[in-house]
Predict the 3D structure of the following.
Amino acid sequence: MDATVAERGQITLPKAARDALGLVKGTKLKVEVEGGRIILRKDVDDAISRLRGRFKLPAGMTTDDVMRELRGRAPGDPIPEWDRPPSERRK
């Protein structure tokens, strides 16, 4: 994919790149210069902060209960034997 720098230093990101990252008008990007490269990263912190507080837990459920439903366990739960690295499994 190619992009050209316009007179005022602006570029238009190709539609395929915007679609792949879900970029829409107003999406914030982080700009990094590394060696001879420009790296654009979607500002995920901004997206998360906009969602904070919008979702309520079902009545009577804790965050750990929701995590167990989604992942099968929550922080502090014992790690199942099959999920442990071979070096940590009981013999």
